TrEMBL record:
It is found in: Cell membrane. One of its GO terms (molecular function) is transmembrane transporter activity. The chain crosses the membrane at residues 45-69, 89-120, 225-246, 258-281, 288-306, 312-333, 354-374, 380-398. It comes from Streptomyces mangrovisoli. This is MFS transporter. It is a multi-pass membrane protein. One of its GO terms (cellular component) is plasma membrane. Residues 1-402 form the Major facilitator superfamily (MFS) profile domain. Keywords: Cell membrane, Membrane, Transmembrane, Transmembrane helix, Transport.
Length: 430
């Protein structure tokens, strides 16, 4: 499958710039929040509360959020959420300047940022196919560029910047993220309007939400695509919750912030590479086989991280894991955006993301509990086992045969043929 960047519309460039700027701010906060929490407590369970809080909005409102996005103007939803998050970050910034930070405040901010992210991410996922005319080649090309830029900004540049800005003052990284949200809001507001979703006046919000969830659960391919990040999030959040302690206590990075930021950068560097080679892997192996391979790579890489004797081996393991994640996050969403009808895109995307986010708090608390009860390496070994087991279970659900059958079924005329509450029409269940 070849890509042609000349076909990408001008509006995509603005969307890419907006998400890149916002991702840079996210990377700053991603490094700063756990380090800020670490200045308040060394309790793994308290750190887990902050980590899990950002995922709870998806658990509580995921499917309903998708139904609302399928009713709302998607471009407007994106810029309003970015503007709201810019204003929100003023609160912890002020608290940091006044030396009034607390774990409870950090958890509340993480929750509200997650709520804004729920609506923004769902709207962006639904908006992109409209912007690109649902062309599968352009979607893969666009997702590769978006994922690559997001990884470079939020992982490669953002964490070291967040660690460095934190040395200037506890409020500085939070203010930097607020500025990034404000700039992103301005750019998104300038994007071309997309067709507004067709209103479903005769159906309640709850009924529409159930229709989106049913569409995912009754389709083996979509369910397999959703289960991968769900199980993955249990594993990755278990790792993320204790990673700062693991780096300080087992890898010898010391109590400074720079070493931890470099570990996150190593993971992001791998993610950038993975996003860049995703299309090649899909062409060479087939999308289904490529997804199975990247899942196995992630599990083996976390196993290597758990056994790492020093920061250099740990950084290499995180880079390999990041490569697997980067490729997965291009191939999976591109396939979903190609085969799901436009009027269900918001609900299907939010249902899939909700499954992943529902698993994330469990992973965060699992990581905190295992570290407290056993050793800080234990959550890493448990995460590797989960990832490898998930690879085996979902391999047939996202096989090449299923993917090819779904792509054949996703003819342009088929969009209007899918009933709102019925099962998805697919060829050749295997």
């Amino acid at each position: 499958m070849s890509t042609d960047i000349r076909k990408l519309p001008t509006g995509f460039g603005r969307l890419w710039t907006a998400q890149t700027v916002s991702s840079l701010g996210d990377g700053v906060t991603h490094a700063a929040l756990p380090l800020l929490a670490l200045t308040l407590t060394r309790d793994p369970m308290a750190l887990a509360v902050v980590t899990a809080a950002g995922t709870l909005p998806w658990v509580l409102f995921g499917v309903l959020g998708g139904a609302l996005v399928d009713r709302w103007d998607r471009r407007r939803t994106m810029w309003v959420m970015d503007a709201a998050r810019a204003v929100l970050l003023a609160t912890p910034a002020a608290a940091a300047a006044l030396d009034a930070l607390s774990i409870a405040l950090l958890a509340a901010v993480a929750f509200l940022l997650g709520l804004g992210g729920l609506f923004f991410d769902t709207a962006a996922t639904a908006y992109l196919p409209d912007l690109l005319g649902r062309d599968p080649v352009l979607l893969e090309s666009a997702n590769s560029r978006l994922r690559g830029a997001q990884t470079a900004a939020s992982g490669f540049a953002g964490p070291p910047a967040g660690s460095a800005l934190l040395t200037l003052g506890r409020a500085v990284p939070l203010l930097a993220d607020a500025v990034s949200f404000a700039l992103s809001a301005l750019l998104v507001r300038s994007l071309p309007a997309a067709p507004r979703p067709v209103p479903q006046a005769r159906e309640s919000l709850l009924r529409q939400a159930r229709a989106g969830a049913s569409y995912v659960f009754r389709d083996r391919l979509l369910l397999g695509l959703a289960l991968r990040p769900a199980v993955g999030n249990i594993a990755f959040l278990a790792v993320e919750t204790v990673l700062v302690l693991f780096a300080h206590e087992r890898l010898g990075t010391g109590t400074g912030t720079f070493g931890f930021g470099l570990l996150l950068t190593a993971e992001a560097t791998g993610g950038l590479l993975g996003a860049g080679i995703a299309s090649f892997l899909g062409r060479r192996l087939g999308t289904g086989a490529a997804l199975t391979c990247t899942a196995a790579v992630e599990g083996l890489a976390i196993l290597g991280l758990a056994a790492a004797p020093n920061p250099y081996v740990a950084g290499l393991a995180l880079a390999v894991c990041g490569a697997g994640m980067g490729a997965t996050m291009v191939l999976g969403p591109s396939l979903r955006q190609t085969i799901v009808p436009a009027h269900l895109m918001g609900r299907v995307a939010s249902t899939s993301r909700m499954l992943a986010m529902c698993a994330a708090p469990f992973g965060a608390f699992l990581g905190g509990w295992l570290a407290s009860a056993y050793d800080v390496r234990t959550p890493l070994y448990a995460a590797a086992g989960l990832l490898l087991a998930m690879t085996t279970v979902t391999a047939t659900m996202t096989s090449n045969r299923r993917v090819e059958a779904a792509l054949r079924a996703a003819a342009p005329a088929g969009d209007a043929d899918h009933p709102e509450t019925g099962a998805p029409v697919r060829e050749g269940a295997v």
